[in-house]
Amino acid sequence: MRLAICDEQWLFASVLAAALGGRGHDVVLVTDDAAELLDSVARSRVELAVIDFLGGPLTTAQVCRRLKGLQPAPRVVLLVDSRDDEAWDTYDSGRADGLVNKACGLHTLTAAIGAVGRGSRVSEGWLVGGQRRQHTLVETLTTRELEVLHLVVRGLSTQQIAERLGVSRHTIRTHVQQVLRKLDVHGRGKLARAAVAAGLVDVGELATGDHR
């Protein structure tokens, strides 16, 4: 399946693209620009677009509407990291075929995307009914906190994470403390096990030795 990913968090998008590529999908574009996404989908006959909730001149709802106006129209999966009425409205209106909580583990994310590509409508990582917009396992992590979590469980130090993300060590320590609080664990040593148990990371991500 030919896929395009549009996400403002480059690291997250790259990890997701690698995971989808490992499942045999052809990821033809990874971008943070909605206009580039629309152009690529139109030119490259992308079958499925994966979209983070976007800022900028075009809202996510507008991007989804334009995508669904193409012939042939791609399937669309929205990735969100918090409760958002506009995202749910976009999904409920049929302008998006999937709505997935970004705090889910990579296995859940890729499985949901695959299901949408096969024609299903999927909402994953939420309770059903009146509580559907609450995360099922833990207080929702922000996109940046999820990025930091993935790097911590791979064994990177505070300094290495700070260099990778282009922020200060103090900022990384703050993010780590927030992740520890939300997962209700004490100390980085217990973080990986808690993250796997909560479905936020896959076991295969642990201590991969990626220290670049």
Protein described:
By secondary structure, the protein is an alpha/beta fold. It has two domains: 2-131, 3-Layer(aba) Sandwich (Rossmann fold); 143-205, Arc Repressor Mutant, subunit A. The protein is 44% helix and 14% strand. It has nine helices and six strands; from the N terminus they run βαβαβαβαβαβαααα. It has helices at residues 10-22, 34-44, 60-68, 85-92, 106-117, 143-153, 158-165, 169-183, 191-197; strands at residues 2-6, 26-31, 48-52, 75-80, 98-101, 122-124. A six-stranded parallel beta sheet has the order 2-1-3-4-5-6, with helices on both faces. Helix 6 (143-153) crosses helix 8 and helix 7 (158-165) packs across helix 8 (169-183). The longest helix is centred in the C-terminal third of the chain and has 15 residues, at 169-183.
Secondary-structure map:
Layout: E1 2-6, H1 10-22, E2 26-31, H2 34-44, E3 48-52, H3 60-68, E4 75-80, H4 85-92, E5 98-101, H5 106-117, E6 122-124, H6 143-153, H7 158-165, H8 169-183, H9 191-197
Parallel strand pairs: 1-2, 1-3, 3-4, 4-5, 5-6
Helix pairs in contact: 6-8, 7-8
